[in-house]
């Protein structure tokens, strides 16, 4: 039997002069094949990461080629770094305050030379785009790069085929993508046809003329045949209409097969997301038809492009869910439909095709308690996909980081905006340990080594409190509800744990946990909570390191002896 092939994952991706990522130095995100959780404050470049990955893994299309992608990259280039070659007509002082004489040619940043270009002091000779996105994979193939010379999706050979395959299979969503599923239908019936063709079912395999095609490719073949205006004509040729009529049955059958496979998967995903009061009873598709109307442009002769949704809420039929269901249910419904489509199509993936999920604040319509099931759903159903989560919500980031602390398959990055000397913004990255407890212990040891004992004690205290909360999460220990979980004190958590350990059935657990907790309660009074006293406390190196060691042991014991 041939050995199983592990799907390649992203090892790193690099952005340079792309949107918020001003050059000249490129910025690299090192994933090493792991999943990635990104926190980015507003303006820090989080959306630039999303757009870089979405546009890099973009679908081939008859409406796009290398030139259109070059222009697209130019529109995404950082405005503060792009340079143009200019001829100097009158003396010009560049940004280094160096006089450039008339008659010379110089490279000038566009944002610096804009006024001189308008006044005629400079004349544009040529311009070049330094924006680039580069991705390397874990399979050892050469990196793939998008710059002004080429886009990897335009070459379907060699290592570039990896990008083409990943583009069809990707699951890249932002909050606006969810709008396509529910909200953008006004008061009318929901129609998922365009969403299914372009997103949900685009890579579903369809048989046509004895060969297997992707659904999206067959639909694009149909569009190319009908788009006679692009070929300078107004009518279909004698061979084009028969091809159109031959394609439609294959497309219709492919959509019906895909819908039949997707529908049974939606409700279980909805239940996993915590919404078992909604049930999808059917996805309704009558079939696409061609109506031969000589006075109508061929592209407009395709009719009945409709895929409807029939569902119930608490057993009652709802024909306009976007006007009745709340935002949380609509978001969950969109996610369940989308991921059901990805599940079905993933079953047909080649083993060596990258499986990439990128979610940019798609959970913004859910409150904090309804976001955790999304993480569990990804872990349960998409563990063989590489996931990148982006958020600007600091509280949610900490909750997600806390939830993922035990998982070695995740890494985390924090992004902040930094002003450069010329006033232009630039993102900076700060790597952080996905295990917030271990990260605080490491920080405590660092401060201890610097003889900053009070700071070391604060981080040890945070690690202690997180360890207690982790125990509550693992063993489902009920604690007092707080709308902001950061306001839950360690005393309240300790009280809940001690009450839980008081159950006679947990004698063995109490014997394991109790000594560490009792010891740390004593340490906390003196070391881990030094600022709770009315008078300053002088902490010694021995006191603090003892507390740090005790917290680290407690964390290690929980990891080893109290699994999920």
Number of strands: 22
Cα gyration radius (Å): 29 Å
Terminus-to-terminus distance: 35 Å
Structural class: alpha+beta
**Continuous helix count:** 17
Uncertain stretches? 530-537
Q: What average pLDDT do the residues reach?
A: 82
Biggest sheet layout: 6 strands, mixed
Helix % is: 40-55%
- The global form is flat
The spatial strand order of the largest sheet comes to 11-19-20-3-21-22
Proportion of strand residues: 15-25%
List keywords for this structure.
564 residues, flat, single chain
Structure description:
- It is flat and about 90 Å long.
- A hairpin with a 5-residue loop joins strand 21 and strand 22 (425-432).
- It has 564 residues and is α+β, with helices and mostly antiparallel strands.
- 35% of the residues are buried.
- The chain has 17 helices and 22 strands.
- The strands form 7 sheets. A 6-stranded mixed sheet has the order 11-19-20-3-21-22, sandwiched between helices. A 4-stranded antiparallel sheet has the order 2-1-9-10, with helices on one face. It has a 3-stranded antiparallel sheet with strand order 7-4-8, with helices on one face.
Set down the secondary structure blueprint:
Blueprint: E1 10-16, E2 27-30, E3 35-40, H1 46-56, H2 66-76, E4 83-88, E5 92-93, E6 99-100, E7 105-109, H3 110-119, E8 122-128, E9 132-137, E10 144-146, H4 160-169, E11 171-174, H5 175-181, H6 193-200, E12 205-208, E13 211-214, H7 215-226, H8 240-272, E14 278-284, E15 289-290, E16 302-303, E17 308-313, E18 316-318, H9 321-324, H10 327-346, E19 356-360, H11 368-381, E20 386-391, H12 394-403, E21 410-419, E22 425-432, H13 436-449, H14 453-475, H15 490-501, H16 507-528, H17 541-561
Parallel strand pairs: 3-20, 3-21, 11-19, 19-20
Antiparallel strand pairs: 1-2, 1-9, 4-7, 4-8, 5-6, 9-10, 12-13, 14-17, 15-16, 17-18, 21-22
Helix pairs in contact: 7-8, 8-10, 11-12, 13-14, 13-17, 14-15, 14-16, 14-17, 16-17
């Amino acid at each position: 039997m041939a050995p199983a092939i592990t799907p390649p994952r992203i090892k790193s991706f690099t952005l340079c002069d792309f949107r918020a990522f001003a050059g000249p130095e490129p910025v690299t995100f090192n994933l090493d094949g792991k999943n990635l959780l990104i926190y980015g404050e507003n303006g820090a470049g989080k959306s630039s990461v999303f757009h870089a990955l979405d546009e890099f893994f973009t679908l081939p299309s008859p409406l796009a080629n290398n030139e259109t992608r070059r222009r697209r990259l130019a529109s995404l280039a950082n405005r503060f770094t792009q340079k143009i070659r200019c001829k100097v007509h009158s003396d010009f002082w560049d940004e280094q305050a160096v006089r450039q004489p008339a008659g010379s040619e110089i490279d000038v940043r566009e944002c610096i030379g804009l006024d001189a270009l308008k006044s005629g002091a400079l004349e544009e000779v040529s311009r070049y785009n330094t924006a680039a996105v580069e991705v390397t994979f874990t399979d050892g193939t050469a990196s793939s790069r998008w710059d002004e010379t080429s886009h990897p999706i335009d070459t379907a050979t060699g290592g570039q085929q990896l990008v083409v395959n990943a583009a069809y299979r990707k699951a890249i969503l932002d909050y606006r993508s969810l709008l396509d599923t529910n909200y953008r239908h006004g008061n009318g019936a929901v129609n998922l046809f365009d969403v299914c063709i372009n997103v949900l079912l685009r890579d579903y395999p369809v048989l046509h003329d004895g060969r297997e095609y992707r659904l999206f490719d067959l639909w694009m073949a149909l569009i190319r045949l009908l788009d006679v205006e692009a070929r300078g004509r107004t009518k279909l040729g004698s061979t084009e209409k028969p091809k159109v009529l031959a394609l439609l049955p294959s497309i219709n059958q492919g959509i019906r097969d895909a819908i039949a496979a997707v529908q049974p998967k939606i409700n279980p995903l909805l239940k996993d997301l915590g919404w078992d009061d909604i049930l999808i009873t059917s996805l309704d598709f009558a079939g696409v038809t061609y109506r031969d109307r000589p006075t109508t442009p061929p592209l407009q002769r395709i009719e009945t492009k409709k895929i409807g949704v029939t569902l119930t809420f608490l057993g009652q039929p709802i024909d306009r869910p976007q006007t009745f269901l709340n935002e949380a249910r609509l978001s969950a419904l969109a996610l369940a439909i989308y991921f059901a489509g990805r599940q079905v199509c993933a079953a047909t993936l080649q083993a060596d095709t990258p499986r990439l999920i990128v979610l940019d604040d798609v959970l913004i319509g859910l409150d904090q308690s309804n976001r955790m099931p999304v993480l569990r759903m990804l872990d349960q159903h998409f563990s063989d996909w590489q996931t990148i989560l982006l958020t600007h919500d600091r509280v949610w980031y900490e909750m997600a980081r806390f939830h993922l602390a035990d998982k070695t398959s995740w890494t985390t990055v924090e992004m902040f905006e930094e002003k450069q000397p010329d006033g232009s913004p630039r993102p900076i990255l700060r790597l952080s340990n996905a295990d917030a407890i271990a990260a605080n212990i490491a920080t405590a040891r660092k401060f201890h080594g610097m003889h900053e004992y009070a700071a070391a004690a604060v981080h040890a205290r945070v690690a202690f409190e997180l360890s207690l909360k982790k125990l509550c999460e693992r063993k489902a220990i009920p604690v007092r509800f707080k709308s902001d979980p950061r306001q839950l004190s360690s005393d309240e958590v300790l009280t809940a744990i001690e009450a839980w350990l008081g159950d006679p059935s947990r004698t063995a657990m109490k014997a394991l946990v109790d000594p560490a907790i009792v010891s740390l309660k004593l340490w906390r009074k003196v070391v881990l909570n030094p600022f709770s006293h009315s008078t300053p406390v002088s902490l010694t190196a021995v006191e603090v390191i003892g507390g740090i060691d005790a917290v680290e042991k407690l964390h290690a014991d929980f990891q080893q002896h109290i699994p999920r």
